[in-house]
């Protein structure tokens, strides 16, 4: 499917256009409708964006939980909180501008910083692309001798003659070569930054940094008494993942009943206190409100039917207590059974080593005698919270077969999505169909603004919303077989990237031009390549409006975040009954899904690169659109987002490699164009560039991929002069002499061409990342006063770190609000009599009879748990 689409795209660019074709494509008056469509898209989206920003400025200080939680909320350690922005708009903008992106790296996560860097990188690529292509290709296209008008005049569609095509070929060599160098440069920088990050004391001392997860270890590895025999003398502890299906259902039922008990008791406390307050307001006295009697009175107590809806009505509090006690007893018996103690049937084992270096060596060297490493996958740096326990405990055969089935299913989904996406792309060219199909003539009766919205704004708006549900579906599928949430997210990134390129770019591009040839295919199928070649540049107008939509209203919506605001205000008021529910909603911070955001913006960059030499104007719109998005994500990562999925920079590495898809597509499309135009010189130039790109890509991957995937086994945090990779592979020189030599070379070059320092210095850093941004230099980025100290663990934390929660979790503590009537105290005693831990600290019934809690001091709340930095 993908190969067919690429072949179509290769052959879908204009040769010579007849007056009839231009008139048909343009609109009612025979002129290009591109400017009208872009204007129709820009005006409403710009107005919407302005409204969003105005609303945001007005309410951002009022709803700090939504717009600035990282400045104060208790789940963010005080030393890692973002400085509070001043209230004045001008002061606020100045403070926001002065905060460096490195603040995200030092106070939140490596992935967050790299995502902002990725956006800056693709903006840089697009901006430099404008500087390279516009001065040359705009004049060449505008004077190309064609009959195109408006914005189409400065695109490839206005070229009439082959001599000018050399300009496009030469510009392609320069710009696409620049993209290749930029991507390679970023990958070198990433390898150094990642090593500096992982070897920083705050990371190197974490338990996860010295623990390796082995899937499909040999049977003997499950025996802890033979741990050192299997994993070496540096192994100090192991945890075996067991299949605990019976225990899973018991724990789920216990937790559900504990939640039901908490809700029922809070409702009882609220109801009785509201009655008491009502009596006080009416009679001025609360006599007769005895907490012991009223709490036991059946008419005030919550009830439910068992089984649900049709069963016998029972007291919810008493029933939940009984069920908790029964399930707790069964859970303990199951945990202490000989089956779990003596015969752990599992297909995975976590092994802790004495230090990070030993863990890295084991990760590289242990293969258990299997001929292929992929048959024994292993992971290092896995956090306990990221483990998908059901998948870890699956057999290798089940995991492999499920992944294979999932891939087939995703391929089918991408193919199926072609139908609606093609329809959306066809809407952008509806005027041509109306000219050829009689029953669509009514479209010409629409006012010009309405027609402009129909062809300019509606298609990208529909596409953007329609595609938004795809990654959620893919994430659900990935979590059915991947062992960890980062692994699932990286799988989503790969799938969603394929979807974005095939559906949002290739299929939409072809279907935008396909409307033009719909009525001619049946007459002469052999003309399909030529017809597509004449009309595909028209689809560039679709992407101009696409970038407008994404860069204005979508970026502004990303900052306003009205969906989360409405959910926080409405859902919290309607559904949060207990202190725990209020606590969870308040402390729950917005996350960011790398598998969703990276492919979207990689695809936008690919579109810009692919059209760079065909419709260079796309680069300018991409620069602006991506720039606005960068500002919106920068605000969110500094003030709103809490990074919850840690890929340790692997998502960024994958995105950089995916960017080269745009280079290949651009080269293939230009090669197809030149071939159709029978221009052997430019075609030969593009053929050489295509082969050179492939060879360059292979060489760069061979050198850099090992550095991006994992730390080299001989790299030690205490030895700053250690080689980056093993003997036999190229090593990166990190000493100061090499840096001085690099500086001198760049300075001599700059003096030779009279480059000023403000250009020379950034150029030097760009061309020599191995010397100016090596691991030794980047280590300083992590040496700051607020850096975390190496964590220390209690014996219990170490014992249970990688143990299945089914084996260690306790009955959830019931959290009740205190009240003046003493109902909470009575319920607390009743719960503790049946061994149900209960607390009323940090919450109370206020003077209105509502639940209030210590939101300003989370550590005083019963739901608070001190986070452990595993």
Describe the structure.
The structure is a single chain. The protein is mainly alpha-helical and 870 residues long. The chain has three domains: 11-16 and 46-202 and 396-709, no CATH class; 245-340 and 810-860, no CATH class; 738-768. 61% of the residues lie in helices and 4% in strands. The strands form four sheets. Strands 2-5-1-6 form a four-stranded antiparallel beta sheet. A two-stranded antiparallel sheet has the order 3-4. Strand 3 (303-306) and strand 4 (312-315) form a beta hairpin. It is globular, with a radius of gyration of 32 Å. It starts with a helix and ends in a 17-residue tail after the last strand. It is a multi-pass membrane protein.
